[in-house]
Structures are given as C-alpha cells and as structure tokens.
Amino acid sequence: DDLVGLNNLVANTAYLKAQHIDRSELRQQRLSLTLPRPKSSALRAAADNQYESLCEQQPIGRKLFQQFLQSSNPQYVVAAEFLEELSDWTFAEDQTKEKAKWTILTKFCQPESRRFLSYLTGENAKICKALSNKNFDGVMLDQIKVATREFLKGKPFSEYLNSPFYYKFLQWKEYEKQKISDQNFYEFRSLGKGGFGEVCAVQVKLTGQMYACKKLDKKRLKKKSGEKLALLEKQLLEKVNSHFIVNLAYAYASRTHLCLVMNLMNGGDLRFHIYEVGERGIRMERVIYYVAQITTGILQLHSMDIVYRDMKPENVLLDGRGQCRLSDLGLAVELPKGKMICQKAGTTGYMAPEILKQESYRMSVDWWSLGCSIYEMVAARLPFKDFREKVQNEEVTRRTLEDECKFEHKRFDPATKDIISLFLKRKVEHRLGCRGSDPRNHVFFKSINFHRLEAGLVDPPWVPKSNVVYTKDMDKFAETSEVQGIELNDNDEKFYMEFGTGAVAIQWQKEMIDSGVFDELNDLGLNGYDCVTVWK
Ligand code: ADP
Ligand code: MG
Ligand code: MG
User: Fold this and answer.
1) Which of 273, 323, 371, 531 could form a disulfide with 424 if both were Cys (CB 3.0 to 4.6 A apart)?
2) Model-level pTM?
3) Residue 251 Cβ < 6 Å to ligand 1
4) Is there a binding annotation on residue 214?
5) Are the C-beta atoms of 174 and 36 separated by less than 8 Å?
C-alpha cells in the first residue's frame, strides 16, 4: 500500500513539474534547427488554398501575412491596423470601448488623416467619412470591415503569394508534415481510462508543450471492431476548431496503439467536481459560466451539422485556467441538412425521449442532455435517477417518458428551474434550442457577454490549483488485461496509415508560436532569397 502511494506521488510530481518547464533550456537544445525546403508539389497544393485559411485561420499563415503587410505598401499597413483596432472595439467594454471608438474615428475615418482608409471606394468610402461620435454603429462598421477584407484578398494577397513571406510559410508547412511517433513525446501519468485504453499526459520534446494522449489499443480496437469509430472520432476532432471543444494536435500510430494527442485538460471533469471536490454540487456562478461555454460548444457543433449525443458532466473537462471544453466525440455523428437518424446512442439518465422511443431525431437530443446536466451540476443527482441509485434502465426510461421533473434542492432559483424545464420539454418543438430558439437569450445567462466569452476574454470564476492533480489516484483505474488471440495484418496497417496523419495544422502552428519556436526560426531572417527561382 505504501508502495502504491509512493508510485502515485512520484508520478504526480513528475507530471506537475513538467508543466512548469524552463523554456530557455529547451531553446539551447534547438539551436541547430532549420526549416526544410518546400517540395514543389506542396507549392501547388498550398496555392489552391483560400485567403481565409492561409491568412486568417492558420496561425503561422496569419503571422507571415501580417509581416508581409507591414513590410509593403502603407495602404496595406493601414488596412491591417484598422482590422486590429476594429477587433479591439468589438470585444472591449466601457472605457476601453470608448477609447477604441475614438481611435477609429480620428485615425481611420478623417480624410485628412494619414491613416484614412483611402482604398475604400463608392458607397463604402461615403459610409466611412460619415462615421462620427453619434453615428457609429456595428452594421456600418461591419460593411467597412467586409470591404477591407475584400481589398486585402485582391492585390495584397496575390503579391503575398509571390513574396518570400509565403515561401517561409511553405517551409513551415513542409515541417508540419514531418512524421510523428512516440519519439516526439515524453510520457507522464495516466489521467483517465476509456473503452479502448488509457489517456495520459504527454509533453512534446521540441517545444515543452503539454498535451493529453488518448491511446487506443490496436488489438482491442480490432477485437471489438472499433476501428471505424476511432477514425470517425479523429476526423471530427480535427475538423472542429473551437475554444469549447478539445482540439486535436496530432494523430499517429505507435507499434501497439493509435494515439490522439489533444489539449491537456488538467482541471478535471465536471463529474469529479460535482461529486468528489468539497460539498456536492457546483456553485451557481460556476454553473452559469460552464453552461455558457458548453452551450457555445454545442452550437458550434450543430452549426457544422454534428450531433454530440454524449452531453454529460463527465465529458466536460476543465483546463488549467478553469475554462471548459467538450471532450469525447466518440458518439458524435455528422448529419447533413435534412437527414435524421434513429439509432439509440447516449448514456442512461441523459437520453432524450425521442431516442428512448426510437424515433428519428437530429440536434434536439443534445439540449435535453444539457438540461439533465445543469440539473446534475446544481443538485448532484439526475432529474430521473438519484446519485448511486441502483435502478434498471427500463425504469429510468419510464420515468423519463412519464414522470414530472421535481426541483427539491434548495439551490434551484427561478431562472435555473426555468431553463432546465425548457430543455426538458418532451416535445421537440417546445424544447429550448430547437426550432430556431437560441438558448443564449435566456435570463439564466443574463450575466454572460457571449461575444467576449467566445473570444476567451471572460475570466473563469474558479481556477484549479496548479499543485493539485484533479483525477483519481492511478491505482483506482481498473487494470486492463492484454488482448489475446488477435493478429494484425496488412489491411490493418493500411487503416493505421489513414489514421496517422500527424500534426493538425492550426493546433500545431499555435504550439510553434506559443513555445517561441516560430520566433526563433524567423529571427534567422528570411532565408528565402532563392525562393523565386524555386517556385516559378
Ligand atoms: P472514451 O471514449 O473511451 O470514454 P474518453 O475520451 O472519455 O474515452 O477519455 C477517458 C478519460 O480520460 C476521460 O473520462 C477523462 O478523465 C480523461 N481524459 C480524456 N481526454 C482528456 C484530456 N484532453 N485531458 C485530460 N484528461 C482527459
Ligand atoms: Mg468517455
Ligand atoms: Mg468515447
């Protein structure tokens, strides 16, 4: 027993220490790093890409495009600065917002100013000149913003594609394609267990970046025919790029496992916080904040025609700052517009009536499960199942279809009761979130500025302690035995190749920037003087 305790302590210490790594030491190890030359096929493929992806969504692409703008025509600089200031104004509050407004008016809207937006023409130029302290609204600014982006998409963008900055970008893209294996990571303690293997903390050797790695046992996958599902989960994870859903950074195959490397959520899952930390249940201020982030995450999935189908506190994880994300897209499915599904999927106690009755459904089921989850965060039990109650699934189904939801816990206030009741409407057409009703407008969220929340600008009401590991001790995870009698063949290898696509662009580029590697390699100057000959 002492030995188990000691093992746990050692594992926790190593894991916590890795999170506070000295970055200058890593820098020393990276001194000899250089970027590869792009292959010519990469050049053509990348040039087919759109402005949005190249210059806005991909973090390194965005940086290099901005650097290009700063180094060229003064008009380009003005356009870039205007978009920056406009974004500040959009997200600012009170005095800062007033100040941003004043800056926009004096800098960019006065024809005699050096920074006047002189690339605007026709209607847009008129609007810009007409803006004033009294006449300053979001719709007009939006129109000028659209016009500014149209301007950048034209001549500036095509000049960028022929500049050394873009060559540099292609070098980074080439580097991004490197093969990924176990060798790229240090591995730390296990954080949880799933159906096909464990999730552990890992650290990228090159950058010191911490992630969580979900390791799916190849043999177990094959035995339970879980390969298709694993691939689906990977493809969905890499497609969604959201503050409120765990992002995928790498997907690769080791000799024994398929590995999904995702944001490290070291603040624990909400189930843990409801039942295992302090008094049961979660304080209202925190509930509202988490539910706001969850709602935004669900709306983002739905906007991509994805049903989550596994909304429950256990699948909502907190990061080190105390912000939450949805995880485990293992049950999620993409349903193209108009398509319905009637497959039974979800967790007992959270499943909507339409699933239990085996009717066809779309996005509605996630709002029902969210209603159950809010109830659970407040009352530390489910609406139709008490905590640790031993009860048959059939009985939970019966209660879900017939019983009234009771609010006996003292912490239910009127707004909370109301939003839960609206999410728990048995008829889909009456349920909040369905038929075009937007849950974000409910009074439950009156303290939340969703605009700022989405931009990650609202401070969490509670921050996890940096010296605590918010998960069960390692020996509490059940042992899993090795899978017997399964042989892997060439067909399996083909599938592993399809799964192991390596780095995922946006997250990987963010890692390069956050860790300082991007600046280090860019500081070497633009060694792209030979680029023109390379790619013409
Ligand atoms: P499964 O699909 O097999 O249920 P999950 O994706 O839910 O697997 O992961 C299993 C457990 O691992 C979770 O319940 C959670 O405790 C932990 N876990 C999963 N993803 C992360 C992450 N990104 N950061 C930290 N812990 C995680
Ligand atoms: Mg899970
Ligand atoms: Mg799963």
Assistant:
1) 371
2) 0.91
3) no
4) yes
5) yes
